[in-house]
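Appendix B, Record 12. Input sequence as logged:
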Amino acid sequence: MPSLPTYSTIAPSRKLLIENSACNLLTKAGITEPPTPIYRLLEISAKYLYNDDIERGFCFENEWERHVHIKNKTTKEQNLYPLARYIGHQMLNHELMDPTELTEAVIRRKRDEADYYADCLLMPADWLRSAAPGGVVTPADVRRLALLYCVPQDIMDRRLRDLV
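Logged structural output:
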């Protein structure tokens, strides 16, 4: 399985802010164990939630309301991560910017931060540390934890490597 890059481009202080934001949302919603119920969190934060026959799920918002479109014919695992990423963009105030300010570096930073938020929301560090005492994780553990947390194995592997 090819490994995804870790989040070395995010400053440690920014990572801590992202981790705390995700943990606060989980605490506020009373979520204490995997898998994270993303649909429940979206119902709290989105005005409209749709199941559609679309090619890819997407989210959009205007000044009055948020809309989330979820592809009907996907597995739970395929839906959770993109939806958690959307919540990350929202919670990190990644508002629309003037198109002249959207450089490749800004787009990459926002994407990395939203991905990291999704990791923290779906796979909180404290939950994973208790699931892998001593920090020793085998490939079988990665598979087991990916199923338990409803995330792809490569994303679970990246999260575990980021926590070591």
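The first helix runs from residue 12 to 29.
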